[in-house]
Amino acid sequence: EVQLVESGGGLVKPGGSLRLSCAASGFDFKNAWMSWFRQAPGKGLEWVGRIKRKIDGGTTEYAAPVKGRFTISRDDSKNTLFLQMDSLKSEDTAVYYCTTEGGSWGQGTMVTVSS
Amino acid sequence: DVVLTQSPLSLPVTLGQPASISCRSSQSLVHSDGNTYFYWFHQRPDQSPRRLIYWVSNRDSGVPDRFSGSGSGTDFTLKISRVEAEDVGVYYCMQGTYWPPGYTFGQGTKLEIK
Questions:
Q1: pLDDT tens, residue by residue, B82-103
Q2: What phi and psi, each to the nearest 5 degrees, are found at residue A87?
Q3: How far is B112 from A113, CA to CA, in rounded Å?
Q4: How far apart are CA B31 and CA B99, in angstroms?
């Protein structure tokens, strides 16, 4: 069974940084393209970014609102996905979900950006 | 950028009755490789989203066969043949054909039981 468990969320001040982790199990992680999505309180779903598997270059792509501030990486030896979030803004407040390109989702981790 | 427009945004349905949600794209979602990267998701209150349909009409594993997806080009539909209580929540359509901007969603349709 696919399991994705996000962690690392919390309260951070505007301009601050946070690093989210996603522990994956139940599937061939190193051969999976992975995406982060988010959902602001009471709002719809928004794609954040994705990382391809290493044999496809391991390249990353980002949504316009986070490009240049967020960085996705992966550690295939630990079946773990990361989302490094820098220069955080209040509009980044959301539940962040780790997914297998939308097919399977974690339970999410809440990030609140507020002074 | 491609825009997905769902209708209706609110959908009250009687248990056991059918339901239908439309998603219209501002551009054709047929990729240059011939595939159409269009999806449907369901999110129950206070739960993570769940993908129901991928590539227009393919049900994900474990999705009841009362859910069906159809459409092509710019017009897509999700149908529920007989609504059950567990079907309440918000339904989203999503496209993955255009990169950039990457995956983009419709506004969501809230299904409730009358």
A1: 999 999 999 999 999 999 999 9
A2: 50, 50
A3: 32
A4: 10
Distance of alpha carbon B112 from alpha carbon B44, whole angstroms: 11
pLDDT digits (tens, 9 = 90+) for A64-96: 999 999 999 999 999 999 999 999 999 999 999
pLDDT score, position B86: 97
Among A70, A88, A93, CA closest to A15: A88
The predicted structure's pLDDT at residue A102: 82
User: Which residues of chain B lie closer than 8 angstroms to A103, CB-CB?
Assistant: 51, 54, 60
Query: How far apart are alpha carbons A68 and A87 in whole angstroms?
Result: 9
Q: What is the 3-state secondary structure (H, E, C) of chain B?
A: CCCEEEECCEEEECCCCCEEEEEEECCCCECCCCCECEEEEEECCCCCCEEEEECCCEECCCCCCCEEEEEECCEEEEEECCCCHHHCEEEEEEECCCCCCCCEECCCEEEEEC
Cβ contacts of A102 on chain B, cutoff 8 Å? 39, 41, 51, 54, 94, 96, 103
From chain B, the residues in CB contact with A104 under 8 A are 51
Q: How confident is the model at residue A11 (pLDDT cuts 50, 70, 90)?
A: very high
Residues 92-111 of B with CB under 8 A from A: 92, 94, 96, 99-108
Chain A CB within 8 Å of residue B59 CB = no
